[in-house]
């Protein structure tokens, strides 16, 4: 089955950097959209950044200019470079992949287990 493996979370001081990695594996035809969400305590899960197959990116206003999302040549692994981190970036970050399993239509959202990012003042 499809799995999303996340890594790179941790504890950093404000102004520091982290790099998150998400690798998709399993029986997948294509992944038209892939990205990251986050959920802070007491808040709803929110979209952070996405990248499409052709390389188009989207960023939430709160992270523009600080975060960069990228996709490798195989297009099943994404990276989120997070710079100038702020305490308000503290959250559990979830990898998301909208996948096509067969190529005949019908997309399914897959989620990673989440990785904790904590930014101290």
How would you concisely characterize the structure shown here?
With 121 residues, the protein is mostly beta strands. The chain contains no helices and eleven strands.
Helices, strands, pairings?
Elements (H helix, E strand, L loop, with lengths): L2 E5 L2 E4 L4 E8 L4 E10 L6 E7 L4 E3 L7 E5 L5 E6 L8 E10 L6 E5 L3 E6 L1
Parallel strand pairs: 2-11
Antiparallel strand pairs: 1-3, 3-8, 4-5, 4-9, 5-6, 7-8, 9-10, 9-11
What does this structure look like?
By secondary structure, this protein is an all-beta fold. Helices cover 0% and strands 57% of the residues. The chain has strands at residues 3-7, 10-13, 18-25, 30-39, 46-52, 57-59, 67-71, 77-82, 91-100, 107-111, 115-120. The strands form 2 sheets. Strands 2, 4, 5, 6, 9, 10 and 11 form a 7-stranded mixed sheet that branches. Strands 1-3-8-7 form a 4-stranded antiparallel sheet, with no helix packed on it. The protein is elongated, with a radius of gyration of 14 Å. The mean pLDDT is 95.
